[in-house]
Amino acid sequence: MLGTFVNAVRIPELRKKLLFTAAMLAIYRFGAYIPAPGINVDAVKSIEESFQGSNVLGFLNLFSGGSLQRFAIFALGIMPYITASIILQLLQVVVPSLEKLRKEGEVGQQKITQYTRYLTVGLAFAQSIGYVFLFRTFGNSANTDVVENFGFGRVFLIVITLTAGTVLVMWLGELITQRGIGNGISLMIFASITARIPHGVQAWWTNPDQIFKVMMPFLALAVIGAIVFIQEGQRRIPVQYAKRVIGRRMSGGGSTYLPLRVNMAGVIPVIFAASLMAFPPTVGELIHTQAARDFSVFFNPNGTAYIIGESILIVLFTYFYTAVTFNPVEQADNLKKYGGFIPGVRPGRPTAEYLDRILARLTFPGALYLAAIAALPTILLNQTSANFFFGGTSILIVVGVALDTMKQLEAQLMMRNYEGFLK
After folding, report:
1. Residue 326 burial (CB < 10 Å; 0-12/13-18/19+)?
2. What gap in Å lies between CA 102 and CA 81, rounded to an integer?
3. What is the DSSP string of 90-130?
4. Per residue in 41-64, pLDDT tens?
5. Lowest mean pLDDT among 90-94, 194-198, 267-271, 383-387
6. Fold of the 209-390 domain
C-alpha cells in the first residue's frame, strides 16, 4: 500500500488529485473547529459531559468528527446527505417516475442527484432546529446559556449556518469524487472517524479494565483481517470468447474470467444502516418526554435492539445495493454481444439466471460477515464497559474506505503505467 502511494506521488496528474483530495479534507476538518455564530464557546465546553453520557449523541459526534460536540458550522456533517440518499434509493423501488429516471442513464441520474440535494437541505434545516433546542436544554441543565440572546433571529441565523455547512460539506464531497481520488462522501466519514482515533486510544490506555486493555489490540487486528479477507474475496466465473472473422482476418478468441466479489456493495450498507439506526434515538433525544427518553435508551448504539436492527439493515442494504450495482441481465447481454459465453451455460437468459444464482450465494455470506463484524466487537466491548471508538462499525468503515481508495489509486496507476508490446 505504501509503495502504491509513493508511485502515485511521482506522477504529476495523480499528485494533483491527491493534493486536491487532501485540501478538501483539510477544509472539512478546519470547519469542524469553527463555532456557529451566536454560540457561547465556554458554555459548549461545559456541557461535554452530556455527550459522554449519551450514547446516541456520542455516536453522531463520532461521525461528525467532533463537530457536533463543539457546535461547529459542520456540526451536522454528511449524515443528512446520506439519509437523503437512502430515502431516494428506496423511493426508486416504489415510485414509478423515479424508477423511470433511474433507467434513463446519466441524465436521469443527474435529476435524482438534484432531488437528493434538495432533500438534504430540508433534512439539514429540520435537524439544525432540533439541535439548537437540544443544546439549549443541555445549557439550562448546566445553568448556562449555550445560545446567547436566544430568540427567533438568533435561532434562524444558527439554523441557516448549520444548513449551509451541510451543503458545503456535500459540495466538497462531490468535488473529491469528480476531481480527486476515491468516493468523496465515504472519505468525509473516513476523515471524521480517524479524527477521533486519538480520543479512542486515550480512552483505551486510561481504561481501568485490564482485560479490555489487553484484548483491544488483538480484537482490532482480528476485525481488520476479517474485513480485508471479505473485501478481497471473489468468485471468478470463467468466460470464453469465440473467434470471429472480420474481413480477411480472424480476431477474438481466448478466455478470461468475470470477478464477482463476495461483498460487491463495499461499506455503503454499513454507512446506510448506521445513519438510519441513528434516526430513532436522535428523535428520542430531541423530544423531552419520559417516553421519548425510554425510546432513546432502547435504541442506544450499545444496546441489543440497536445491534439487532443494524445487523438486519446491513443484510437488507447489502442485497439492495448489490442489485443496484450489478445487473445480471445486462451483463449477460454484454457477453452475448461481444461473443462471450460461460462454458456449460447457454448465452442469453440462462447466463443471466446463472449469474443471478451465483451472486445470491455470494451476497448472503458477505452480508452476514458485514453484520457480524459490525455487531460482534460492539458486543464484546460492552462487556468491558468501554466506549465505541473501536466499535465494529467504525473499523469496518475506515478499513473498507481505505481499501476502496487504494484500489482506485492502483487502477489510475495501471492506466498510466501500462506497458504493451511496443516498448
Report:
1. middle
2. 19
3. HHHHH-HHHHHHHTTTHHHHHHHHHHHHHHHHHHHHHHHHH
4. 777 777 765 555 455 666 677 777
5. 383-387
6. Preprotein translocase SecY subunit (1.10.3370)
The answer to whether the 1-195 and 209-390 domains have the same CATH topology is yes
* Per-domain boundaries in the chain: 1-195, 209-390
Among residues 157, 362, 371, the alpha carbon closest in space to that of 272 is found at 371
What is the band of 5 on the pLDDT scale with cuts at 50, 70, 90?
Answer: low
Helices (H) and strands (E) in the chain, counts: 20, 5
Residue 346 has pLDDT above 80, yes or no: yes
**Long-range contacts for 104-113 (Cβ within 8 Å, ≥24 apart)?**
112/88
Burial 226-262, CB ≥16 within 10 A → b, else e: bbeebbeeeeebebebeeeeeeeeeeeeeeeebebbb
Q: In terms of Cα–Cα distance, which of 265, 291, 267, 266 is closest to 280?
A: 291
Please report how many Cα atoms fall inside a 13 Å half-sphere around the Cα of residue 79, on the Cβ side.
28
What pTM did the predictor assign? 0.76
CB atoms inside a 10 Å sphere around CB 125: 16
Q: At a CB cut-off of 8 Å and minimum separation 6, what does 162 contact? A: 36, 73, 75, 76, 124, 127, 128, 131
- 122 contacts: CB under 8 Å, gap ≥ 6: none
Confidence of residue 161 (pLDDT cuts 50, 70, 90): very high
Task: Give the span between the Cα atoms of 252 and 246, in whole angstroms.
Answer: 10
305 vs 23, residue with greater confidence: 23
Cell output for 245: 472473422
Residues 227-253, mean pLDDT to the nearest whole number? 72
One CATH from 1.10.3370.10, 1.20.120.80, 2.40.50.200, 3.40.1350.10 for 1-195:
1.10.3370.10
